[in-house]
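Reviewer comment 2.1 asked that we show a complete input and output for one of the modelled complexes. We chose the alpha-D-galactopyranose case, as it is the one discussed in the main text.
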Amino acid sequence: MTDDLFTAYRTFFGKGDALYRLFAPYRICPLGAHVDHQHGLVSGFAFDSGIDFLFSETENGKVEMASLTFEGLVTFNVQRPVEERQGNWGDYLRGAIWALQQDFRLEKGIKGIVKGSIPIGGLSSSAALLCGFVMAVDKVNHLGLSRQQIIDYASVAERRYIDLNNGILDQACVVLCEADKLLYLDTATGEHRLVPFGGENPKPLPFKLGIFFSGVTRRLTGTDYNLRVSECKTAAWIIQAYEGKHLKELGDTRLRDVSEEELERCSDRMPDRFARRARHFFTECDRVTEGIKAWEDGDIERFGQYVFDSCESSMNNYECGSPELIALYHIMRRTPGIYGGRFSGAGFKGACIALVDPSRQEEIRTFVTNEYLREYPQYRDSFEIFFCNPANGVDFL
Ligand code: GLA
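Response of the prediction step:
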């Protein structure tokens, strides 16, 4: 752990406070992309990079948070109604308080420092920040939140305060994951399992996680993320209407409410973009189910193949991916030693992720860097590669 957090804390706030420290990991989702908002099946890892928090409580409700990663000091008071979004990282802190205020009267605030360990983009730094901050506020106010409640409040903050119509994937990975296991989650019911590699005969993990930063960063609220969510809901609505089923309001409709057979019966009559969004949903949920079997069989090559297939469907059916991410994906496919890889997160910015053979790490670094920078020399200073390991969910240190 870095000492610069302590130094920064002392510079901002002086000495003498009782300090708490927690670490909220980033996440990757190898299989189960873009289906959580439609109540589909997902999988995920938390990994050993993320956001470090060092903080203490304040008696008067004041929040004062500084960051070594994001710009600007964030100040407000948890005892007062939360102000509107301001378009900076403080919105996530305000959002967390807004969500908690729906159920609790908060007394104590937080002052502290946060620091992200690798560049931001596609690895769910927002969920790490939200879940970590909810846990910090829980600690100083003795709210006694369960792990599930941390997920729920962080999720309410992102959907209702930040206005991103996302699902529960990110928060669930940040909170529930365990090192060496793959999280399997049914986002319709919340049912989940932490699956050992090799199933009943667990084996050590034969891979590392490769994170390939394209050099492009952008916020999800400025992308087509919410548009895709609406397209999925509309696809479900159209299918239900053709099938003569009872319709709910569009906002309450999900692709999980219809079946693949129903889609195929009417896909010819649907505008193509809606049929493709629905096709992504069904094939991706199947890939999660099949991928979990490969994982339990201890077959990393088969698992990796599903991850590549998942990215194909993200490009062709879900239609996401910036030109840079698409280029990286094609490079990864022809890189020896990469078992499988895809866009990370929503796939509109940030990074590609891959499962890589640890013995070929440096070869992979050289090959991907040379190939990518040949196509995109403008990212020479911002393109970066990291190799990480699956890790436990958010916790106090
Ligand atoms: C973002 C969202 C998640 C999920 C992924 C795509 O990370 O926050 O809820 O939809 O994209 O799988």
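The longest strand covers residues 41-58. We note this here for comparison with the apo prediction described in Section 3.2.
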